[in-house]
């Protein structure tokens, strides 16, 4: 079976970190993922990551919205 190549911007789950991330690119044997709320990218094994489920997408949207709202109010929740 051929390896699935995830497109830039795709939301995926990395089981090694148990974390969701957006695909930022591919470098060597790895996929670079960025946390949903922003921050430093990490390398993930493309054989292990999988597309996010609908429930995970909703959770990611809520987390991102919270982070953006917090940033726009000066970090006050």
How would you describe this structure to a colleague?
The structure is a single chain. By secondary structure, this protein is of the alpha+beta class. It has one domain (11-72). The protein is built from 1 helix and 5 strands. It has a 5-stranded antiparallel sheet, covered by helices on one side. The longest helix has 19 residues, at 54-72. The protein starts with 10 loop residues before the first strand and ends in a 5-residue tail after the last helix. The model has no long low-confidence stretch (mean pLDDT 90).
Features:
77 residues; alpha+beta; 1 helix; 31% strand; globular
Helical content (DSSP H or I, runs of 4+): 10-25%
The assigned structural class equals alpha+beta
Task: Determine the oligomeric state from the structure.
Answer: single chain
Total helical elements = 1
Q: How many angstroms separate the termini?
A: 47 Å
Secondary structure topology:
Elements: E1 11-14, E2 19-27, E3 30-35, E4 42-44, E5 50-51, H1 54-72
Antiparallel strand pairs: 1-2, 1-5, 2-3, 3-4
Q: What is the structure about, briefly put?
A:
The chain has 77 residues and is α+β, with helices and mostly antiparallel strands.
């Amino acid at each position: 079976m051929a390896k699935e190549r995830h497109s830039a911007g795709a939301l995926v789950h990395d089981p090694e970190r148990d974390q969701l991330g957006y695909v930022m690119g591919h470098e060597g044997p790895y996929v670079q993922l960025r946390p949903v709320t922003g921050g430093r990218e990490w390398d993930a094994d493309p054989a292990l990551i999988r597309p996010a489920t609908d429930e995970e997408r909703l959770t990611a949207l809520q987390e991102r919205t919270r982070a953006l709202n917090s940033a726009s109010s000066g970090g006050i929740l």
